[in-house]
Amino acid sequence: MDQNIKKLIPFTKPYQSHIVWNIVFNILYALFSTLSMITMFPLLEVLFKKSTAVIKEPTYTGIQDIGQFGKDWLFFTISDLNQKQGPQFALLLAVVLVIVTFLFKNLFNYLASYHITHLKNGVLRDLRQKMYYKIIDLPISYYSEKRKGDIMARMLGDVNEVQNSFFTILELIVKEPLTIVFTIIAMLNISVNLTLFVFIFIPVSGFIISKIGKSLKSKSTRAQQESGYFISLVEESLSGLKVVKSYNAESQFKKRFDNSIDRLLQLTNSIGNKNNLASPLSEFMGIVTIATLLWYGGNLVLVDKTLEGSLFLVYMLLSYNILTPAKNISKASYAVKNGLAAAERVFEVLEIENAITNHHEAIIKDTFDSKIEITNINFKYEDENVLKDFSLDVMKGQTVALVGQSGSGKSTIANLLTRFYDVNEGSIQIDGIAIKQLELHSLRNMIGLVTQDSILFNDSIRANIALGKEDATDNEIIEALKIANAYEFVKELPKGIHTNIGDSGNKLSGGQKQRLSIARAVLKNPPIMILDEATSALDTESEKLVQVALENMMQNRTSIVIAHRLSTIQKAHKIVVMQKGRIVEQGTHEELIALNGTYNKLVSMQSLE
């Protein structure tokens, strides 16, 4: 059994009753599919008036002879009706018999489909849910290497493909094979010689079809990867549309898009052509077999006279009854190959080891009491160390500012404190406890983060601010907005705090978005605040408004301020000057100015701007 099929089995467990009922109704469908053809025989017998009178009523001798007993009883009943009520009544019974068997065949088909629909949709929901939970739980580092579009393609397209393809396996192993088995049993009862032709047809047909389907899985994988790239391209084009237009790069993006959809077109055409070949090929093989049967069976009826004409017609109907399931098996085997390729991509994401997890004896900590200790940490994103032997103590109630040129490792400190990434060497401790031993939720509950990019969601102002405190009242929201100097513009909006701010908050200016981000952190009210270039996106006027707000917010709080504009951090208790991942100077603003070193140079450069 393929590994991916094994991995899917746990997802089917909550729906076991649907699987059982699907199998039961598929067995009944296969049985009545054959019976519906067999009941044509008494109908033909009545029409051609070939049946001789059966006088003796058959007796039931046991389960082993139930088939023969059923056949004898049917002929006795029709013969008896023919004698007593006339041929019209016998014909009516034969027609009713045909209708009833076809009714049951289709009823069982519907009931089997009903249960497999519940199974497919249930597994689809559970797979999507597990995939989304995994996407949310994976560390930030995973997404710095992967395209978002590829992840979206796996969650939407590939999970759908798994749903559409895999559950044809139930029909592959139950419905269609049993229809063929029951039909062959009936055919063997009519003529062993004729049935040998069918046995030759099925393996030959299966062999030819499997040869064509060999390359289907690899092509499906390539098509799904291309779909991921294609969705990624659309997502990047939409999120970076201003840049695309301002650099007149539309033609470049159109060219990339055209190349991607051309590759996708070739792959999907190739896959489609092979899929499309399955049905006509199996039908042609079937017709070749039926033509051979007509020639050989016709000889048995007309020349050898060893087979009745009406039985031969029933036999031909039965042999055609094999064609549809054989055709479905070949199509389903192609679909399963597509599903295997899709499942591989889905489980690839589900099985990724999350490097940032809770310690097996994680400590839940609600308060911050004394200090943050960063001791001899080394950290690299890829090959080169971003932080080298970095050590820093932040006492409770202190405001510590990290300054330095871009790429000096300032923002990395924020990423490590919040455990978006884990240190390679060294340790970070809060109140003497290593943050790797703290329960992740409780660690992040103690920290408020305001980033350089104001990340807001397509929802109301209220929902965006209440992200860290779902049960916040309107008054608490308004209070947080006031502290962040944002209430002035919010109250002027048509629906106030209930106004929708659009995709990524694009209905607002950069300064307004940043003040909402600060209000969100204020409402969360954490003991430790990390401000990562929090004012760099603001104009001078907004910066002054926000700076006052930040100073209010930081009064009884421990704050780590990553700053580009040095004017914003002059009141900090400690300023740490960084260069290429190392601390080169630290002290108060006055002490560092007096040193006349790197910090003084940075201040001089900014005052000249």
Automatic annotation (TrEMBL):
Keywords tagged on the record: ATP-binding, Membrane, Nucleotide-binding, Transmembrane, Transmembrane helix
UniProt xrefs under SUPFAM superfamilies: ABC transporter transmembrane region, P-loop containing nucleoside triphosphate hydrolases
Membrane topology: Multi-pass membrane protein
GO molecular-function terms, A-Z: ATP binding
Stored Pfam families: ABC_membrane, ABC_tran
Listed InterPro entries: AAA+_ATPase, ABC1_TM_dom, ABC1_TM_sf, ABC_transporter-like_ATP-bd, ABC_transporter-like_CS, P-loop_NTPase, Type_1_exporter
UniProt keyword Nucleotide-binding present: yes
Top-rank taxon, per record: Bacteria
ABC transmembrane type-1 domain segment(s): 73-338
Localization in the cell: Cell membrane
TM region positions: 20-44, 89-108, 180-209
All residue ranges annotated as the ABC transporter domain in the record: 372-605
PANTHER family xrefs: ATP-BINDING CASSETTE SUB-FAMILY B MEMBER 10, MITOCHONDRIAL, ATP-DEPENDENT PERMEASE MDL1, MITOCHONDRIAL
Protein name per Swiss-Prot or TrEMBL: Antibiotic ABC transporter ATP-binding protein
